[in-house]
Amino acid sequence: MEFLSAVASAISKGPSFPYFFGDRVDVEQSIWTLNNGTKREDGSKCSIFSFDVTANKSRLPLARNAVRKLRTLRHPGVIKVLDTVETDTYIYIATERLTPLGWHVRRRSMAEETVKWGLYNVAKTLKFINDEGSSVHGCIRTSSIFTSESGEWKLAGFDVLSSMKEEDAIIYTYGSLVPDSGRYAPPEISKSGWEIIKSNPVSAVDAYSFGILIYEAFNGSFAGTDQLLQTKSIPLNMHQTYKRLLNANPKARLSIGHYLEQGQRSGGFFETPLIRLAEGIESIGLKNETEREDLLTQLDAVSDDFPEEFFKMKVLPELLKSVEFGGGGPKVFSVVMRISAKLSDEEYDAQITPVVVRLFTSPDRAIRVCLLDNLPLMIDHLSKKIVNDKIFPQLVTGFTDLAPVVREQTVKAVLTIIGKLSDRTINGELLRYLAKSANDEQPGIRTNTTICLGKIARYLGNNTRGKVLSAAFARSLRDPFVHARNAALMALAATSDVFTEEECANKMLPTICPSLVDKEKIVRDQANKTLDIYLQRIRKYGQTLPDSVLPPPTASEGINVAVPRMGTPQNDTSWAGWAISSFTNKIASAKGDMQASTNDKASRPAEPQRSLSVPSSVNGKLPQTSSGTASPLQRQALAAPSATNSLNNVPATNTSLLDVEDEDFDASWGDNPDSEDAWDDPSENPFSRSQPKPKPSTNTASKAPSNLTDTGEPDFAGWLNAQAAAKSKAKTSLPKGLTKPATGRPAAV
């Protein structure tokens, strides 16, 4: 806290420094203090090196030399400087976000291939300084090397970096002020001082220090020169060059440039897939297809050895540029998806999402299919707004594409994005496109559309779900493609719970039943399974329904409660018991006298009287039976009217005939002219509707004999015989409705 307060005080007195100081980072063997920081303008991450002028006045020339060299030296292997500020009390250097290499070295957390890659980067930077810059770094050690956010090793520690072209180079005077300079100094410096550099090769000092760096990187620490002969932890193929770097004779010492050449030879220690990939990734957009394929193959081989940060910050941006602008194609995009799986949501939104949105607008079919294939890997990182507003409007163009593979992949992609779509989009635009896909010319697409509808059923609106699914599945059940029919049945089985019980009974069962006799066994088997599911649900629901919804009649309501008659089946569930019960109920509800139809008499020959004909009433009195009394059933039978009297034959003056009783039973039985059992004469149908009560007849001349048994019950056997005779005669008569109307006057009754 005291340090930060002092920094804040110094900033307030000096020029403005557009960065915030964060946590302090421990750095060994350095004149600088390192803090994490953020830029005031946009909050981007950075690191801040601070030098306290008051506390380290003797080393102020080193700090000023470092600032000057960092401003003028530009190389990919050197830390990137963002800004510098120098005051009377402090010197600040803002750089990219860095991490001391010593953290990783002490924990020995890096793989051997990663260490080689890091040494390779440092060697290239030193070669540039020694050869192109004719300079000596003079402070090569782990404390002078940092790792960037991309995992690359970056060189710093330019406190005594000097050009050998300068007569008063700072390294000659202040080289010994570098912390721990004696431990890392080569033998000639320890013996003769820093002035000896002038008489030796420019790279001699840095070559020896680079040899110590190799030992420290593979062993985790360095205590003194007596440890340098222990090569157990150093890779075997590096032993020879390592020893040449540590040669006591500076003139015979291997230079950094020659060291790189030795490592890059065929089979050399720098000939690794990781280093080849790092070298080739930046130019992937310029490579031909064969070279690009080789590079991607290498990337797959070293994905576990690469630092994760390097994938995110270095490889991924280059691959994205290759996909979008360099013709990288689907294979490069697949690699992008594997790398992006390690990104956080913030990193994904910043790097991947914008590229994905732009790629969906591309007309390249190969890119579109690749995007659809990898959509499951992306969907969790995409917001609902992005999917609805940016991706879905482009995705639906695949439903109508000319290439079947694009249409099919688009249908499959619906299952992936359905959870991110709004209800309005699902029940509107999406269903319209799926309706088109359900009628696609490709049977596989029709089948997949049916499967898709079954899986997204629960996302559909409650008001449209039943109509949409029932219509879609019914169409698929008529599809000539066997797998489309089978898919429809499986979808029906999977979505049985989205329909109401009434829909299951009224719509679904009639739709499923024709598949029970399908020509393909696979369809028949699935139809039976699906039918069982629906039947079980309907039966279970039926058990919860009441026996009847009609209110029970009560005596208090003035309703005559019918008492069961002796001999009438009450609980018999057989067909006969039901038929007789209905027949007797029909007779009990009949009213009035039976009367022959005038039209029938005029147009048809005389027929023998039916066995159920009864005498007409005379003066409103019923005829007496042989016993002198009439049973209730007998009185009901004698009062039944003729069924042939229709409203068209009723005289206009007889207004009492409008009293008609409604009954639908005959709508399903006996009035079909095409049926063999159709009734030619409605008066012969005992299940026909009851007719209004006609005006009582005064003609007593015509009386039909009673056709009752001795016990007063109707003679059913006789009635059945009469019906059989009528049916045999009806075959020669004209169909109902085609009889000629009577031309003469109606016969007198």
Automatic annotation (TrEMBL):
A GO cellular component annotation here is: cytoplasm
The entry's protein name is Protein kinase domain-containing protein
Q: Where is the composition biased (Acidic residues)?
A: 673-683
Q: Name one GO molecular function term.
A: ATP binding
PANTHER family the UniProt entry points to: N-TERMINAL KINASE-LIKE PROTEIN (PTHR12984:SF3), SCY1-RELATED S/T PROTEIN KINASE-LIKE (PTHR12984)
Stretches with biased composition (Polar residues): 610-634, 642-651, 685-710
InterPro entries from the entry? Answer: ARM-like, ARM-type_fold, CIK-Related_Protein, Kinase-like_dom_sf, Prot_kinase_dom
Query: What does the entry give for GO biological process?
Result: tRNA export from nucleus
Organism of origin: Cryomyces minteri
Q: Which Pfam families match?
A: Pkinase (PF00069)
User: Where's the Protein kinase domain?
Assistant: 5-270
